[in-house]
Design brief:
Length: about 500
Amino acid sequence: MKDARAACVMDYHARSKHALDRYAAGPGTLDWDAQPAAFRYWAGCTQTALPRDVVVDDIAWGALGATRAALPFDTRTLGSFLRLSLGLTAWKEYAGSRWSLRAHPSSGNLHPTESWLITSQVADVADGLHHYQNLQHALERRAWNEEASAPGVWLGFTSIHWREAWKYGERAFRYCQLDMGHVLAAVSYAAALHGWQPRLLALDEHKVARTLGVDRDADFANVEAEEAEVIVALHADGDAPTTWQHYAGTPGLLDPKPLYQWPVINEVSAATRGTPPATPAATQTVATHANESDIRATQVILKRRSAQAFDGESVMPQSLFKRMLAGLLAGGSPVWNLWPHTPRVHPVLLVHRVEGVAPGVYVLPRCDASIEPLRAAMRDSFNWQRADESLPLYQLIAARAGKTARTLSCHQDIATHCAVTFMMVAEFAAPIEQDPAAYRHLHWEAGMLGHIVTLEAEAAGWRGTGIGCFFDDADHEVLGFKDTQFQVIYHYAVGMALDDARILTLPAYA
């Protein structure tokens, strides 16, 4: 059975690749007036408005890793935490169109991830399962029990695949999982500011679906289903409730007239269900990185934007370059408290303009055990010259790679006008053969890497953007990969952003 699931995953990955002479199957046309609704409401649920104030506004970005006392759980702190991790950060308006931004980026700003909060014995919050309605920054009470369980606060996440598939077709499942990685990283940063230590629960997909109420097929009749992803404990004296005695509410329809169907997404979704690796209860302290700026951490998070264009000229300071890379290593970010597992995704960097770093192609193996397998799988002609004394950074080739970056990234200028293009290389075939659910987890890890990079860039006045469109096997040809031992699963770009003055920015909440 596992072999069949692994084969399904490998087949999906192959058929959802973009190539120089063709793109993965996608919609032939887009009707922007029929775009799926960006927010799901649960009609018939009791709604509780959360305070919108941020209660940790005085912490500098450079002090993010300092040990701090955990704040108590109540509506004020939970409202603050959700604003910084999952809430809206701004509205944009141009030529009659209006769209929202959130504390975490998303492919095409489509946001397939839905968020849930489970509370037990929390001041001023009713016990039970709540859908987080980030448009109104409120909780919709979806389910509850008569008896109180042990005190605790848990976060749950589901994906609505159609939000991405509407635009991206078969490749959409990948993007949903990359988004999940960005979400988990955003949760890690917001939790660190509140003194909390989130940890993943090792629950199988059936328990996660039952706990979040998304296994109730009748409730989702004639509306888009939600795929159970993962549950994170923010604080718990016991296990999260896995069954509910009472339910309320019905989910809203997001797209009344879908034009296409992508059955392969349901197939790979079923094949990759499983149990995520649990986070140990005891976590390490995050190192505090030296930072010239005392910019507030909340400002970094709330002003984060995905760049739409770069200036193609600015030279990145070496200090920022090294801080970004240090954040990707163990202990370098709060993210690695939530995900302390052996790294399986390693960035290859196409450096265009970085102070004191020669243009070329570099690799950052994130653990020593991966150096030799990467070296053996890559081109024999690569130098593998150590490029930094304090980081495991190796120069593969000294050459200007701007045109290569642009071509590989679906001919997009952002990949060459930036200062650095990242190619996230995953240890691929072996983890998936061992457990097909690793396909999700590898994409989560790649999304986490992108989130760390983008926040470090934002703190220094630079900006990042994810690039989900790239020519998979052209990447592999450039790097020398001849099989599926390693695969590139994400591109990311960081540079000096060009802002469009025609676009109006409005507050997230009135």
